[in-house]
Amino acid sequence: MLIRWLIPVLLVALTGCGSITRSVRLDTGRDAPIVFTPRASHQSVELNADEFEEAVEAMARLVRPSTRPQETARRLFEVESRSGSYLYEPNSRRVTPMGPGEHLEGELPPADVELTRAYLRWCERTARPGDCLRLLVEGPTVTGDGRYALSMALAQGVVLEEMMDAFKDMADPEAMLTTVLWTWTTYMILLAVPEPFSKGIAAAMTLTLMAYVGVDTFWNLIVGFKRLVEAADRATTFDELRTEGERYGKVMGRNAARAFAMLATAVIGNSAAGMARQVPALPGAAHAAVQAESQMGFKFAAIGGVETVVVSAEAVTISLAPGAVAMAASGTAAKNLPTLSKAWGSFSGFKKAQGPAGKGQEWHHIVEQTPGNVNRFGAQSVHNTENIIRLDKGVHTRVSSFFSSIQRDVTGSATLTVRQWLSTQSYAAQREFGLLAIERVTKGFW
Question: Which one of 11, 76, 342, 417 is most buried, counting C-beta atoms within 10 A?
Answer without folding.
Answer: 76
